[in-house]
Every structure is written in C-alpha cells, then in structure tokens.
Amino acid sequence: MVAKRTTIRDIAEAVGVSTALVSFALNDDNKKYRVSDEMVRKIRSVAHEMNYQPNSAAKSLRSGKTDTIGVILSDISNRFFADIARCIEDEASEAGITVMIGSTDENPKKFERLVDVFINKGVDGFIIVPCEKSEHVVRRLVEAKVPVVLIDRTYEDLDVSSVTLNNRKATSLAVNELYAQGFRKIHFVTYHTTISNIVDRETGYVESMKKCGLEDEISVRKIKYENILENMRSLIPQMLDGGTEALIFSTNRLAIDSLVVLREIGKKVPDDVAVIAFDGSETFAFDLYYTTVSYVKQPIEKFGTEAFSVLSRLIKTGDTRDYKSVVLHPELIVQESSRKRK
Amino acid sequence: MVAKRTTIRDIAEAVGVSTALVSFALNDDNKKYRVSDEMVRKIRSVAHEMNYQPNSAAKSLRSGKTDTIGVILSDISNRFFADIARCIEDEASEAGITVMIGSTDENPKKFERLVDVFINKGVDGFIIVPCEKSEHVVRRLVEAKVPVVLIDRTYEDLDVSSVTLNNRKATSLAVNELYAQGFRKIHFVTYHTTISNIVDRETGYVESMKKCGLEDEISVRKIKYENILENMRSLIPQMLDGGTEALIFSTNRLAIDSLVVLREIGKKVPDDVAVIAFDGSETFAFDLYYTTVSYVKQPIEKFGTEAFSVLSRLIKTGDTRDYKSVVLHPELIVQESSRKRK
DNA sequence: TAAAAATGCTAAAACGATTAAACTAAAGAA
DNA sequence: TTCTTTAGTTTAATCGTTTTAGCATTTTTA
Predict the structure, then answer these.
(1) B98 lies within 8 A of chain A by CB
(2) Are B244 and B272 in contact (CB under 8 A)?
C-alpha cells in the first residue's frame, strides 16, 4: 500500500466542507443528493490536485462489494485457458472490475483452497473451470448464493450457470468429415476422466459412429493425464498396427504429442493415418507441421465474454436462482490432415 | 461477497465474550495478550463451527496491508508470460498472498491504467514487465516508495529492483555457435523497439560478430510489431537472396513465423539456411517442425521465483531503497537447425 | 404573508476487524 | 493486613468510506 494517501477527509478539510459532501460530489450521487454544480467542480478539482485515490478496502467494507471477481482455471500456462483468462480480463477491465486468477492443476484440494481464499478476499463472484471430484465445493457456493459461472465443463445435476461447448457435436463433426472422406476405421483417443466435456466428446464420437453404421469400428483408447508423450509412444504404433485409418483426439495436448510420435516413427499424415485434432488455440503449432492439421475449433473468446456477461448479470440482480446455460458451437476446420488420398 | 457472513461479533456473542478476545484468540496474539488456553480452544471451535471467514476488507482497512500483489505483464496469453505468471502465482499462494494480473499489450495507456487500478485496490507491491515509454509511471511508483520489481526488461537509470536475462550473452552464444559451425553470413532479425531486453540482444549480436572478426557481415533487420507473418513473407526471401547463411531471431514469435515462411517457400533448414530461435517456452511448436530447432533458453521459472522473492523482501522490510538486480543466464540448446551440413 | 417545497449542506452511525489502555480478580510479597 | 503483580478480560478508538436523517436557508405556491 502506498505511503500516506489522500483521504476524503483531507479533501473535506482543504475545501472546508463535510466528508459527506465530498463523497456525494465524487460519486455521481450529486444529482441524488443535490450538491451545487460549483461545489462539485471545486471538490473534484481539489481531489485531482491532491491526487486522491479512493481506498477500496474502506469502500468494500462499507458496501459489501469489491468489484473483483475470482477466476479459477485448470492451468493458466495452458494456452486455451490463458486465452479465456485474457478475454475475461479485457471484459472486466472495461467494466471497471478486477480479476483474481488461480490455477487448480485439476487438483480438488487446490481448487477448494482457491475458493476459500477468494471468498475471503470478498470477491463478488466466480468464473470457474471446475475439476473432477469437486462438485461439493461448487454446490456450497451455489447454496451460499454466491454468483458462479462454470465454463468449459459443468456438473449436470447442479443448478448453476455455465458456458460450455456442444462437445458431442464437436466430435460428431469430426467423425462425419472422416466418414465422408471415405475413412472407416476411425478411432478415438482421450483421457481417462469423468470431466463432463471430455466425456461428452467420447459420447459424440460413439453416437455418430453408430449413426454412420460403423458400430463395429468403434474404438476408444484412454490414457492417463501424466506422461502423455510416453503413453503415446506405445499407444500410437499399436493402433496403427491394428489398422487404424483415422485418429480423432479429444484434446489439443493429445493431438500434439501424437503428431510428434508420428513424426518420430516416420509415419506420414494423412497418407499413413488421417488426423483430426481438437482446439485451434495453438494453431501455430500445427502450422509448422509438414502438413496442415484439421481440427475442431472452439470459439475461445466467447467462453470469456459470455461467462463474464452472465456473471455480471448474476451479480447485478443478485438473483442466483436465475441461472442460465450457454452452449457454444464448435466448427470443423478442414485442412490437409484429414484428406483421403487415393 | 457472500450472503451474510459470520463476523467476529457473532462469535463473541455466541461465546459470551468481547470481540477483542475473539480477535486475540484467533490470531496468534494469545501469547502477547494472555488469553487462557481453554478460551482459545473454545473460541476457535465456535469460529470453526460457524464457518467464520475473516473479512479482508476490514482487515486491510485497519492494517493498511492487503496480502495482494499486482502483476502486470505484456500479454498473459503469450506463453512466456503465462509461464512466469503461473510461477509467481504458485509462490504467492504458498505464502498466502493473492495475485492480481493485468496485460498491457505494450500499450503505455493500458499500463498506466492498470497501475492506477491496482494501487487503488491497495496492492502491497508490484511485479511488472514494463513497456516502452512508461518510465515515468514506474518512476512515480518508486518515488512513492511502492515496492516494485521489474522483470524481463528494466530502465537503466531508475533505482529499481529487477530480474532480467543476460540478453547480450544470449545472442552472443548464438553467434558463437553458428561461427563455430562454419557459418559467416550470420544475420539478425528483431523488432523495431527501444525495450531494453530486445536492444541488448541486438547489442550482443553486434558485439560478438565483431569479436569473431565478422564486422563486415553484420546485418540487423528490424520489423514492426504488427503483421509479423506478412512482414516475414517479404523479408525472408529477400535475405536469402542476399546470401544469408544463418538467421538469429530476437524472439520466439519472430522465429516461429519465419519457420512458417521458410516452409511456405520450400526452403530447408538448415540446408538452405541455419536458424537459432529465441526462447524455448514453446518448444512443442518446434518439436513438430521437420527439423528440431536450436534456441536460446531462458530460465522461465526463475523469473517468477526470483521476482517474487525480491518483492517479498521489499514488502517485508519496507525499505524500497534497498533495491537489487538479479541477472539470469541463458543457455543455448543446440539441435539440428544450426548444424552445418557439408 | 404564511405555509409548503426545494435546495445545499452537516452530523453521526455504520461496515468488521485490530489494539492500546484500562479494569477486575486472584495470587504473591511485605 | 495491605500492597504489588499477574492473568484474563473489556472498553472504546480507529482505519476511510457511504448514507440516513435532519438542519438551515431560500424559493415557490396559495
């Protein structure tokens, strides 16, 4: 905190009026409270001269508002979440709201601790990427009537606002494209998890395979969140040996590490195997590959803007029962990696 | 802010004592203020039962401390800064300190506004990646005795703590490696800017070219921060036509976009031109290239940890005159892109 | 010309915590 | 027995704002 700041009382003394009047004049309450225009001008100019900066601790204490929101993500150093954070930050800054950010690393303990810390700091609301096994924490918030918006994932049986992707449609788009290109042995690589968005992507894959009449070709391979590259080194060759013609990945990370492995073992995309990745947020990574990579694109900015707008309303109205689910739509970016060569 | 929170007064009433005693008991002041062990136990258990969360606005108002620091970066969606932010966050969380993050986009106006907002929120100190033409803003902070640590870049004639890379050494390493490999026409691509770290990288290039006796081969090409890819599309072919044998880039972004262009125009690395990039933070992008890319590696985590540790001391001692410059060391990661083929 | 309304301002309480100072009761010293 | 310590607790001020209720004036209305 800065050394000896100007307070409202200092201004009051300098001008020779009460602190109340200064407060009225500095806030736009001067209409409501009938302060003379001349006085408003005087007070504001003195405040400016004395470089007055309101003490927000005092403000918060009085008003119960902090104009601060807590944003809890999986990992801020992951591009997808960083982009979302950036979006939220921009929206918030526009609205004069400050953002506190924390990363959970998908760890329920860290998640709970972050929630406590932010509650403690008195945030006005939360934007949260919830992690596995943390439904109770979010439930507690909802029950305490704390404004909350979940993004990227949600808990089905919780009455809470959310902004998510239509994940089933996302993988469905991928399957259909590959099917249309003539691929049949289309296989899916994903994480071992119960997180809703990842699960939905799997469901989407399975369902659309069935719709395409490829029920017998369905193959879902799941790996752990740790040592992805290592896991891929054994999984990918094994799948190719098994006759896989096309690969769909449920996340960006999985796709990238697989591409690395494919290069390592000298397999060509899409000649040896077609690929559709998830998430264009790291497009530039794909740009460097010898072939351009098709991928399911999420409207990243919208996650941020929508979440912020829903949260703002929640905070403003104070009616946390009035929750709302926003579902965003994926787009398939078709490039070379999913083309069938004869 | 959460609906009707338990206050210290609620606890006091529940236990039937004064609020002062509750405060003593909850803080470890019970030694200093001689509260009976039994009472401490009782108060703490009631506080726990009532799910007491101290109101930090009140705490801050009283103490003038917020246990919050402001972190101002160039752009949180840039991997390099996101990694640093992540590091700072981890350190801070360990120490029970909350972080507020903002991005300047290298825009002095945004920078100044962020500083004002954070000051306003009463942060205890700043970690800042300063942008061009903002020396006066940082100076004002320093003069107001606000704890500040600059990272990545600094202002030479400001008495302020900083954590920076030895940038001259960084490019020097690159030049020497290329020279040792037998390259002579080693050229440097950088931004048009006065930001200290970028300028130092140029200086390092020029100086070590001279030391290698390659004074006549020195060539520095500068481009604007906007439309990098477009700029590269015209610059790179032009340089190759001019006989460039090896390229050194002053940043990651420049390197990546150039690699994209080189692929587009069908030039092979390192056969047609050798490349040394800057910053390994997006290594995975390089992993996908047909050839692995050599680069100057910055110790990213150290930027975060060192900056936080310096800032902590600054805040604790309150002696902002006791500033300190930490200089970190780059490492050259040699891979295929800088190898001379015969 | 008195009553009513509008205008411009102030006093003081409140928000929730911390803390210096004071107070009480019991224990120890003289 | 009286005085001094010590332990355990309370009182009340304080941090910087906001805001309700109310006090003088002046202006309008009837």
Answers:
(1) yes
(2) no
In terms of C-beta density within 10 A (0-12 exposed, 13-18 middle, 19 or more buried), how is residue B180 classed? exposed
Counting beta carbons within 10 angstroms of the beta carbon of residue B282, is it exposed (0 to 12), middle (13 to 18) or buried (19 or more)?
buried
Of B3, B68, B289, the CB nearest to A288: B289
- Identify the bridge partners of residue A162 per DSSP, sorted by sequence position: A150, A325
Which of the 8 DSSP states describes residue B146?
-
Q: Is B233 on the interface with A (CB under 8 A)?
A: no
Residue type at B56 in one-letter notation: S
Distance, CA of B117 to C1' of D18, in Å: 20
* CB-based contact B255:B275 (threshold 8 Å): yes
| Contact with chain A for residue B2, Cβ under 8 A | yes
Chain centre to alpha carbon of residue B25: 40
Contact B56 A120 (CB under 8 A): yes
Please report which confidence band the pLDDT of residue B115 belongs to, taking 50, 70 and 90 as the band edges.
Answer: very high
- For chain A, how long is the longest CA-to-CA vector? 88
The string of pLDDT tens digits covering residues A5-31 is 899 999 999 999 999 999 999 987 656
Cβ contacts (< 8 Å) between A140 and chain B: which residues? none
The CB density around residue B136, as the number of other CB atoms within 10 Å, is: 11
Angle at A307 (CA atoms; ends A305, A310), nearest 5 degrees: 105
Rounded CA–C1' distance between A17 and D21, in angstroms: 18
Find where tokens 């310096």 sit: B310
Of B1, B57, B65, the CB nearest to A1: B65
Q: Is residue B54 within 8 angstroms of chain A, CB to CB?
A: yes
| Residues A86, B76: C-beta atoms closer than 8 Å | yes
Q: Flag whether pLDDT at B1 surpasses 50.
A: no
Look up residue B248 and give its two tokens. Answer: 């050194």
Helix or strand run (H / E) with residue A278: strand A274-278
Which residue's alpha carbon is at the shortest distance from the C1' of C8?
A35
What is the pLDDT at residue B2?
44
Instruction: Please give the mean pLDDT across all residues of chain A.
Output: 91
Evaluate whether B254 touches B299 at the Cβ level (below 8 Å): no
Give the distance, in angstroms, between the CA of residue B292 and the centroid of all CA atoms in the same chain.
26
In angstroms, the CA B156 to CA B167 distance is: 14
Residue linked to tokens 């990945």: A249
Asked if A55's CB is within 8 angstroms of B58's CB, the reply is no
What is the tens place of the pLDDT at every residue in B205-234?
999 999 999 999 999 999 998 899 999 999
Q: Is B123 part of the contact surface with chain A (CB cutoff 8 Å)?
A: yes
Q: Which of B264, B220, B81 is nearest to A101 (CA)?
A: B81
Structure tokens at B275: 């490349």
Cis, bond preceding A147 (omega within 30 deg of 0):
no
Give residue B29's pLDDT.
64
Is residue B282 pLDDT above 80, yes or no? Answer: no
Whether A247 and A219 have beta carbons less than 8 Å apart is answered as no
User: What 8-state DSSP symbol labels residue B298?
Assistant: P
A144-175 CB burial, b ≥16 within 10 A, e <16: eebbbbbbbbbbeebebbbbbbebbbbbbbbb
Q: Where in B31-160 does DSSP place strands (E)?
A: 68-73, 98-103, 125-128, 148-151
Assign A282 a pLDDT band (cuts: 50, 70, 90).
Answer: low
